[in-house]
Write a structure and sequence with these properties.
heterodimer, A: 333 residues, mainly alpha, MetI-like fold, two-stranded antiparallel ribbon, 14 helices, 2 strands, B: 384 residues, four-stranded antiparallel sheet, 15 helices
Chain lengths: 333, 384
């Protein structure tokens, strides 16, 4: 069967099955199990109302539990077993093996570097652009163009930036913008930007910053618009300059939003995989955790160490998870 | 606020200029790829894409007419003609030329060169040449002439032809395009249906444990996908789904659910209470309230999520690699195809650029057409 037809059938069957499930299970509760008539009508209505939320929730909860909650536990278990020994329990052996690998520490250091640079740069640039475009007549067009990389896949972005970083042999014409400018200004030989250890990390980060700045800008720009005008007017009356207004009046008021943007980008950074995979595949000292894990899983076929590194990512995410849950609970009150 | 004291016009100029610069900087890389996808391999390799709109100096290797066409003129043998006509190349003004590949710029247009065989060659700027030899010229092919000519800008659709319609399996994006579409559409629609019902229950039904469930969803929102890979792949292999479309649809559906439930619940909880209570008083069942009132009112939130999920599944590489693409490679998606092209065709920018642009075009279109909903969804998801 052609996959496209299969896809169409899946939509029809999937959506149809969902709707049918919701419809018929409702009918079952209302008509058969707890009919709202006869001697027990009142009690039945109450019971039906107790059951119904769970009917509505069941498919989603089932999928969430099976596809997201269970894997956390299972990965934790797998990280303490060895596949070669038939899945025998080996305690923390996988972890100690992982901690003794220099490649893991390289990934860890790089991830920390990403964690410092990318959220900070994206948020700062996003904030600057949001402020600059705030009162421009063509601000919306500018914002929309800076926001555009959000729609481009990490892989597509990697190709785009690989062309920017392209290096040709010395004395031939450079077709990568960066080297063309570098040779033009400095007169030196062109550089292999992606294979120069340590600094190549930053050239990879630029790609993610390029993508995430638009996201930060959109959210921060909405927050800037939400600042009460009176506070700014009062500051102007008191003689504050534009920079004072920005740093002392505006930024403190949108501080919670800055935190939200920061943590959201942090989450993206912790899971960054595609860019490194497509541009350097972790060579030349650019390994990151998610790519290290992919290597272990699908190249080395070592599910134990692979799971252990996934758990490391989970541990790094946990503080944000807790913060989010606490925040959400506070809002609901 | 525009005319308030403190906003000087000089500052406003500075703002305008810096925004123009930032926008240009942000667009520059993408435009580069776009322009490159319309250039030939030669053009890309010899000049930067930013020079594409201008005429460029190019080195061409041309040949004079073959010795068969020589005529005797007095005591010399002569071959005459136009270099561009001989090769069927678009004429371009020649600046310098040469007869040896080691020194392609030895002579200016109009000068006369003497080859090792003793022939005297003259090449004019327009490509007309005259080759004279004291004796009959031997050989079957004409003399090679290396010219440096100013070639006008030229754009081609041949790359798209190659990438979209050629039979070459490694370059072809057509199959990958349809595969991506096949993954994306069910993976966008199904989670919406599942999540909408759950979101309604979490927003408007009272039951014990509701707050806990919401916290559960918020927690799952940030669980890294990486943790799900091995356990789910094992599960899929055990229950016989294996690697394939069904597996990737299920995975995308489940991974999209937390955001879907979260966005939709927040939106639904903000709908006016009166409408729902009136409907209840009028005897509508919960199912009717949901399908006839809540769902149509939640359209903006549904659209927001649909765009997120569409962009995410279309652009995804990891989930497809783990749950979909098997050893046969028949089910490859565009992102994976591009990564493989990066490996095998790393230097062929005309193929890479075009392939990347084919995969980027659809999300970009969706982005510009439905940006409003995307922004709204982002704001609902993070600003509180």
């Amino acid at each position: 069967m052609h996959p496209a037809i299969q896809g169409l059938m899946t939509i029809v069957i999937g959506v149809g099955a969902c709707v049918a499930y919701f419809y018929f299970s409702n009918q079952l509760v209302d008509r058969v199990l707890f009919p709202a008539k006869g001697p027990n009508a009142g009690r039945n209505i109450n019971r039906a109302n107790m059951v119904r939320p769970w009917l509505f929730l069941f498919p989603a909860l089932f999928a969430l539990t099976l596809y997201l909650a269970y894997p956390v536990v299972e990965t934790l278990r797998l990280s303490m077993t060895d596949r070669d020994q038939g899945g025998a329990f080996v305690g923390l052996a996988n972890y100690s093996q992982m901690f003794s690998e220099p490649k893991f520490w390289e990934a860890m250091t790089n991830n920390m570097l990403w964690l410092f640079v990318v959220p900070a740069m994206s948020t700062a640039l996003g904030l600057i652009v949001a402020q600059l475009t705030d009162r421009l007549r063509w601000g919306n067009i500018a914002k929309s163009l800076i926001f555009m990389p959000m729609a481009i896949s990490f892989v597509g972005a990697s190709v785009i930036w690989k062309l920017v970083y392209d290096a040709r042999p010395p004395d031939t014409e450079q077709i990568g913008v960066l080297n063309a400018m570098y040779v033009w200004f400095s007169g030196n030989d062109p550089q292999q930007w992606l294979t120069t250890p340590f600094w190549n990390n930053f050239f990879l980060m630029v790609v993610l910053i390029w993508i995430q700045t638009g996201f930060a800008m959109v959210i921060l720009s909405a927050a800037l618009r939400g600042i009460p005008e009176e506070t700014i007017e009062a500051a102007i009356v008191d003689g504050a300059g534009p920079f004072q207004i920005f740093f002392k009046i505006k930024v403190p008021q949108i501080y919670p939003t800055i935190m939200v943007v920061w943590t959201t980008i942090t989450l993206v950074v912790l899971k960054i995989f595609d860019i490194v995979f497509a541009m350097t595949n972790g060579q030349w000292g650019t390994q990151v955790l998610a790519n290290y894990m992919f290597d272990k899983l699908f190249r080395a076929n070592d599910w134990g160490v692979g799971s252990a590194s996934a758990i490391v990512i989970m541990v790094l995410v946990t503080p944000i998870l807790v913060w989010n849950v606490v925040q959400a609970r506070r809002e609901m009150r | 606020m525009d005319n308030i004291a403190g906003s000087k016009s000089s500052l406003s100029w500075a703002v305008n200029i810096s925004v123009v610069l930032i926008v240009a900087l942000w667009l520059f890389p993408t435009v580069g790829l776009f322009v490159s996808s319309f250039r030939t391999a030669d053009q890309i390799a010899t000049t930067g894409w930013w020079k594409a709109p201008f005429a460029a100096e190019q080195n061409l290797t041309l040949r004079t007419g073959s010795p068969e066409t020589q005529v005797q003129d007095g005591d010399v043998w002569v071959i005459e003609g136009n270099l561009f006509d001989e090769e069927g190349v678009e004429p371009a003004p020649i600046s310098v030329w040469g007869t040896s590949s080691r020194d392609v710029g030895a002579y200016a247009a109009g000068e006369t060169a003497e080859t090792r065989a003793g022939e005297r060659v003259t090449v004019q700027e327009n490509g007309d040449y005259r080759m004279e030899a004291p004796e009959q010229i031997e050989g079957r092919r004409g003399q090679r002439v290396f010219v440096t000519a100013l070639v006008p800008p030229e754009f081609t659709l041949a790359n798209y032809q190659q990438v979209l319609f050629s039979d070459n399996a490694t370059d072809s994006m057509a199959k990958a395009f349809f595969n991506t579409l096949t993954v994306t559409i069910p993976a966008t629609i199904i989670p919406i249906v599942v999540a909408a019902f759950a979101a309604y229950a979490l927003a408007w039904m009272d039951f014990p444990g509701r707050a806990l469930l919401i916290a559960f969803v918020v927690g799952l929102l940030v669980v890294p996908l990486q943790l799900a890979l091995i356990p789910l792949l094992k599960l899929h292999l055990q229950i016989g789904i294996g690697k394939g479309y069904l597996g990737v649809w299920l995975a995308h559906t489940a991974f999209g659910l937390p955001l879907a439930i979260y966005l939709l619940r927040n939106y639904m909880a903000g709908l006016p209470r009166d409408i729902i209570e009136n409907a209840r008083v009028d005897g509508a069942t919960e199912f009717q309230i949901f399908t006839k009132i809540i769902l149509p009112l939640s359209y903006p939130a549904l659209a927001s999520f649909a765009i997120f999920q569409f962009l995410w599944t279309w652009n995804d590489l990891l989930v497809a690699k783990v749950f979909l693409i098997d050893a046969t490679g028949q089910t490859t998606v565009m992102t994976n195809q591009i990564v493989e092209l990066l490996g095998t065709r790393g230097g062929n920018w005309e193929i890479l650029a075009t392939a990347a642009f084919v995969s980027i075009a659809v999300p970009l279109f969706v982005f510009f057409a439905m940006q409003r909903y995307l922004v709204r969804g982002l704001l609902a998801g993070s600003v509180k």
